[in-house]
Write a structure and sequence with these properties.
Distance between the termini: 82 Å
CATH architecture of the largest domain: 3-Layer(aba) Sandwich
CATH topology of the largest domain: Dna Topoisomerase Vi A Subunit, Chain: A, domain 2
Order of helices and strands: HEHHEEHHHHHHHHEHEHEHEEHEHEHEH
Oligomer: single chain
Largest sheet: 6 strands, mixed
Number of strands: 11
Number of domains: 3
């Protein structure tokens, strides 16, 4: 049989899914029915009566507000004829709100709904679908609407978020990005960069670009183009425009490995790049990579091969280095990796796919930093001679 707690929980859900949207649509209150479980669990009459009394004790009949009950005489298997509650319902809005303790909340909700729709009538459907978001942000709507109003008037600001001339706290937009994004998707839909997910890019704002960290492995190039500096970090857009006389690029997964690339055997016409895991995404539009020898060196684990597949998806000529079964078997120290839900990778060779499956099945990992420098230097000295 339904319990008082179950009645409360079901009423809470109806309040959100049915009652609040009806207020937005200005519908008169309709009898709100809570479906009851007509089965019973007690086999003795005293226990059965106790269940019934628990339900009645929280009803309007006993408390003067809340849900009403309708009973029907039912023939039970072990207790004979008994009166079971067949209908649980709220007659009016006052009973519902007092039962839930939502009187003040609803008054604030009504006020905010009026304010929002007055400012932006096109948000009415959003409110109907998301009433709880209106409630959860009840103290913020004045400032949220200020932000929406600014973007409505200036859909392409080309400013940083904290530069926007809106009279709100400098961090207000950043703290409310999710909600503001939902609203702006509706309010300025014709001005969006729909393919972009990041807030700044989507809504025509300036943003801090990711940095590409790289080391120049050819001393002559470092001296000619960077005044001898060989460890450099620049924004993606600047990296995409570089015009260096190089033939080879080595992308490494981890920062520690980048630090040691200058100990490699001499590599003329080459640079090493810190890929930073899945951040190799930032390199996908580097068009000058197209005709270069691209080498990828990552951890020998599931994620390392997933990143390799990702990078090779951008540049098909990419070759993996030091990510083979021989290296793994020689230096593996029984370290555990991270679980993955990815089933297949589209851009691996047959040998790489076989090793990937082994690593994934056993959750194994060999980090690239654990491969001894002597072995690395010997590999690069033998396999990739200076040009």
């Amino acid at each position: 049989m339904i319990t008082p707690k179950e009645i409360k929980d079901k009423t809470e859900r109806k309040y959100i899914s049915f009652f609040l949207p009806s207020l937005v649509e200005n519908k008169p209150f309709e009898k709100l029915v809570i479906r009851s479980d007509k089965t019973y669990t007690k086999s003795s009459l005293p226990e059965f009566e106790k269940e019934i009394q628990q339900i009645i004790s929280q009803s309007k009949e006993k408390k003067g507000f809340g849900y009403s009950l309708e009973f029907q005489q039912v023939k039970t298997k072990s207790l004979g004829l008994q009166d079971l509650p067949t209908s649980i319902f709220f007659d009016n809005e006052k009973d519902l709100l007092k039962y839930l303790g939502k009187e003040i909340e609803v008054e604030l909700f009504k006020t905010n709904v009026t304010t929002i729709i007055k400012a932006f009538p096109e948000l009415k459907d959003w409110i109907i679908k998301n009433p709880i978001k209106v409630i959860n942000n009840q103290a913020e709507w004045v400032n949220i609407l200020k932000v929406c109003g600014y973007f409505k008037q200036n859909p392409k600001p080309n400013l940083y978020i904290r530069e926007l001339p809106i009279k709100v706290h400098t961090k207000f937009i950043e703290r409310n990005l999710g909600l503001i994004k939902e609203l702006l998707n509706i309010l300025i839909s014709e001005h969006l960069n729909n393919e972009e997910k990041e807030f700044e890019k989507r809504f025509n704002l300036k943003f801090t670009e990711p940095q590409i960290r790289f080391k120049v492995l050819d001393i002559a190039i470092a001296e000619k183009f960077f005044s001898g500096i060989d460890d450099i970090a620049i924004p993606v857009s600047q990296f995409e425009t570089l015009n260096l006389p190089i033939k080879k690029v080595l992308v490494v997964e981890n920062k520690t490995t980048l630090y040691t690339t200058l100990t490699l055997p001499k590599m003329n016409d080459a640079v090493a790049i810190f890929g930073s895991g899945y951040s190799v995404y930032n390199l996908k539009n580097v068009q000058w990579f197209a005709n270069l020898d691209l080498l990828y060196w990552g951890d020998i684990d599931a994620q390392g091969f997933e990143i390799l597949s990702q990078f090779r998806g951008y540049f098909q000529q990419t070759k993996s280095v030091l990510m083979d079964s021989e290296t793994f078997e020689k230096f593996f120290e029984n370290d555990s990796g991270s679980q993955t839900n990815i089933c297949t990778l589209p851009n691996l060779t047959e040998d790489e796919q076989k090793l990937y499956e082994t690593l994934k099945t056993n959750n194994w990992r060999l980090e690239q930093e654990k491969i001894p420098y002597d072995y690395v230097n010997l590999f690069f000295g033998n396999e990739i001679p200076a040009t």
